[in-house]
Amino acid sequence: MTWPAIAGSERVIDPLHMATLGFRLTRPVYAQAALTEVRTASRDLSDLVGAGLLTAHGQTRGRHYSAGPVLTGLLRDLRSRRATITDPYPWLLSELHAP
Fold it and tell me: What is the rounded CA–CA span in Å between residue 4 and residue 50?
């Protein structure tokens, strides 16, 4: 897979993070988060959709973007490699509920 140059740009970090958290991105929201102009945001969003990092929903009015298949795949891969967290205080919950 060839990544567009925009995928390595620092300005896409916050918007892509918002998408991984489940927020719906619109062009004005992207422009504000990336600190760029709306025309640049349009081009960036098109490149990110082309790379599979974002998925476009809707047409011209009301169009929004969510995490695409590549981004969700990366997130799934990272989550699968995380070590499980063991509760360091297994006794605490029963102690809190005790009369």
Answer: 8
List, in sequence order, every residue forming a beta bridge with 19; answer none if it has no partner.
Answer: none
Go through the domains of the chain in sequence order and give each one's CATH number. Answer: 5-97 (1.10.10.10)
Provide the CB-side half-sphere exposure for 83 (13 A, CA): 3
| Residues facing residue 66 across a β-bridge | 55
pLDDT, tens digit, 9 for 90 and up, residues 24-43: 899 999 898 888 898 988 88
Q: Give me the DSSP letters along 21-61.
A: TTPPB-HHHHHHHHT--HHHHHHHHHHHHHTTSEEEESSST
Q: What is the pLDDT of residue 59?
A: 86
* Region of residue 86 (left: phi > 0; alpha: psi -120 to 50; beta: else): beta
Which H or E element spans position 15?
A: helix 13-20
